[in-house]
Specification:
Strand content: 15-25%
Structural class: alpha+beta
Largest sheet: 5 strands, mixed
Number of strands: 16
Number of helices: 10
Radius of gyration: 37 Å
CATH superfamily of the domain at 196-365: G protein-activated inward rectifier potassium channel 1
Oligomer: single chain
CATH class of the domain at 196-365: Mainly Beta
Distance between the termini: 35 Å
């Protein structure tokens, strides 16, 4: 018997007609994986590296390529500058001022050169365009003083230079425009509510379990700040490949997941963590998905939380996603809210924790059909009021057995 066990330990487990004798290498007694086994391992590794459409931190994993109409970015130059990275924005901010100062400094030096002011620096009877302007450096400094309205009083324009007066007006107007544009860009970029979304958290996993005798897909959201999100709303999208009846293949088809739009449950009062529930009914994309099918399926659930920041009044959006591996069948979230002395306390250590609960492994459609068959049987098996109590007890036992049998058959059908 021990000899048979030692021989069987060197053989890979195969099933049915696919069973083949093991392949041994010349330098080792261990079996070499077959081609089919290597392909299976390769598929398993590929499945573990599933590509996300939206990352867990909310960043969309999409890049635009071969954009030929780049002029559209220049037509909306304000938004383009706001969307730039901080190091690029600071570089543009510095260059915008430096170039305008240098440009008008050259013009002030050129006017002084053409008028001959640089040749009469020591002549007390000569009236220059700008007093105490003796070179390019002083012209550059005068340009900075004019545009920033510093006015040190050492270099000043005279009334004998009409071209200088015109240039002074142009620089004052253009300088005001540059200030308004660049300061506005920096203010909008600083006050963007993107960082507010960092304190809006989503549970690391989504769960599927029974709630009020109905299969529901659930995930949890929470706000770490004391300042609330006003008019908060939640949405969910199913990202899955689809092929239409005409043969068209849609690689990233978006299907809406109802999380309470019709009943108003999608409008959240996000003071404490909330569990968002999607009832899997005949209108749900998960209506015919069982536990066994869920393990083989490929999709992504994108959840979007939107609202207005109470402190600033600006709109904020937080995003996250769940892959198939992050959807737990037959689990429920741990409670995080406890009642203390005069207040409620939220324990965020249990925010992502779940625990297993008894849940049928069949699809919601199969569960609804089994429940309907059970209800129909109980309806027709109700005894008459004239029947004896013994018969009533018998019928009740039969009804309970029928209910348990229906759920058992539901699970068995899903496994098959």
């Amino acid at each position: 018997m021990a000899k048979e066990n030692s021989n069987s330990s060197n053989v890979f487990e195969t099933s049915g007609s696919d069973a083949k004798p093991p392949i041994f290498s010349r330098h080792s007694k261990l079996p070499v994986p077959t081609k089919k086994q290597r392909e299976t391992e390769r598929r398993d590794k590929k499945s573990r590296r599933r590509q996300r459409y939206v990352e867990k931190d909310g960043r969309c994993n999409v890049q635009h390529g071969n954009v030929r109409e780049t002029y559209r970015y220049l037509t909306d130059i304000f938004t383009t500058l706001v969307d730039l990275k901080w190091r690029v924005s600071l570089l543009v901010f510095i260059l915008a001022y430096a170039i305008t100062w240098l440009f008008f400094g050259v013009i002030w030096w050129f006017i002084a050169y053409c008028r001959g002011d640089l040749d009469h620096l020591e002549d007390q009877n000569w009236t220059p365009c700008v007093n105490n302007l003796n070179g390019f450096v002083s012209a550059f400094l005068f340009s900075i003083e004019t545009e920033t309205t510093i006015g040190y009083g050492h270099r000043v324009i005279t009334d004998k230079c009409p071209e200088g007066i015109v240039l002074l007006l142009l620089q004052a107007i253009l300088g005001s425009m540059v200030n308004a544009f660049m300061v506005g860009c920096m203010f909008v970029k600083i006050s963007q509510p993107n960082k507010r979304a960092e304190t809006l958290v989503f549970s690391s996993h989504a769960v599927i379990s029974l709630r009020d005798d109905r299969l529901c897909l659930m995930f949890r959201v929470g706000d770490l700040r004391n300042s609330h999100i006003v008019e908060a709303s939640i949405r969910a999208k199913l990202i899955k490949s689809k092929q239409t009846l005409e043969g068209e293949f849609i690689p990233l088809n978006q299907t809406d997941i109802n999380v309470g739009f019709e009943t108003g449950d999608d409008r959240l009062f996000l003071v404490s963590p909330l569990i968002i529930s999607h009832e899997i009914n005949e209108h749900s994309p998960f209506w015919e998905v069982s536990k066994h099918q869920l393990e083989k399926d490929e999709f992504e659930i994108v959840v979007i939380l939107e609202g207005m920041v109470e402190a600033t009044g600006m709109t904020c959006q937080a995003r996250s996603s769940y892959l198939v591996d992050e959807v737990l069948w037959g689990h429920r979230f741990m409670s995080v809210l406890t009642l203390e002395d005069g207040f409620y306390e939220v324990d965020y250590n249990s925010f992502h924790q779940t625990f297993e609960v008894p849940t049928p492994s069949c699809s919601a459609r199969e569960l609804a059909e089994a429940t309907a068959r059970m209800d129909a049987h109980l309806y027709w098996s109700i005894p008459s009021q004239l029947d004896e109590k013994v018969e009533e007890g018998t019928e009740k036992e039969a009804g309970s057995k029928e209910r348990n049998g229906s759920l058992t058959n539901c699970e068995n059908e899903s496994k098959l």
